[in-house]
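Aim 2, interim progress: modelling of the beta-D-galactopyranose-bound target.
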Amino acid sequence: MKTLLRSSILGAALAALIQGCPDADAANRKTLEVFSWWTSGSEAAALDVLFRMYKEKNHGVEIINAAVTGGGGSAARPILQTRLAEGNPPDTWQTHPGYELLARYVALEACDPVTDLYESEGWNKVVPKSLIDEVTKSGDMYAVLVGVHRGNVLWYNKKVLEKNQIKIDGTLTFDQFFAAAEKLKAAGIVPLAVGDSGIWATAEIFENTLLGVLGPQGWHDLFSGKLAFDDPKVKQAAQTYGRLLDYQNPDHSALSWDGAVRAVIGAKAAFTCMGDWTYGEMIKAGLKENQDFGWVDHPGTQGSFIVVADGFTLGKGAPDTAEAVAWLRLIGSKQAQEAFDPLKGAIPARTDVDKSKFGDYLQWSMASFAKANLVPSCVHGEAAPAAFQQAMNDAISLFVADKDVDHLTAALVQAAKDYGVQR
Ligand code: GAL
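Predicted structure of the complex, ligand included:
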């Protein structure tokens, strides 16, 4: 789309030049291309708020929304990769910190540092060091973070649980979940809504369950090569994940993650296991937190926080550098994060926001972030190289069909050997 637009702008300018009469309009038009995968109802609405704020501050700049449909970026990243290989980078693109940013884009010299912005905007003082470290290579920062998601959350329709006399008191163990699931199944309700038309969405259930069984130390050991992917605990997690899938909706592979959320919203299903972008969808649908929907740590993961942070880069050699810098300055600001994150269902990357602008869930998540063990997500590209992430997704695809625990863990062992899991 952008390529087309650019080539048509270039074409118009060129034609005008050839005719000796420059088409000033086309040649002078200021644009900003923002590449992301924010296309679900709440994602698009939240992104739009940023666009509106941007336009207020940057009159006359036309924003090209190059969002590619497909939650988790599964469809967007390959397109981005091709564009980068062709030397046609967007001005700025969505990225997760950690491996995704540092090994995919920074190592390939696809983005320019934004270290000066961190200094001039004072972000070093208000963004936690643990987050800044994940966007830093050799002393330079390469992305501006706009929000932080919590991956390990189990969401539920409160009325469905009440109707079925299921009470959740602060935490939920796997056994309690399975007892509730049996009850729901007997009542004809889908216990666990899953929308894995993008395989990452079910991989997320595996990731959360892995953390629930291994704990944060085990997670760090696993992703630093100290614990084998066929350790009995990993097998136990795979087994539990398989049991969870016994309670999913039969049409899971036809639904996207937000389709699964809609099943919970519409009381067709009781729970969904998904990062807190789910909150954005619930709120967008007009549901009230703690009244219509509730949440609990994914079983076993209380005290841990799977970090899924969203940042934007400064594309090296992209055409609209000044416009992209203005975009980054905006999304790193307090005003933008206070406006965007409550709609997106994320907590701000900055710690100096007005918390009263955030609802109960997000305040809960902020409190969790401040004291929990923070662990990087593998499904969202932070914990391991892209090739490992892909191999895990492939292995999960097979597992959803055959539920073969040994097969899954052997594939993960092989992937760790082939691609490594240490930065
Ligand atoms: C994640 C992203 C979130 C959310 C989710 C579903 O990768 O960090 O912002 O949008 O995908 O699309």
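Residues 200-222 form the longest helix (23 residues). Residues 1-22 have pLDDT under 50 and may be disordered.
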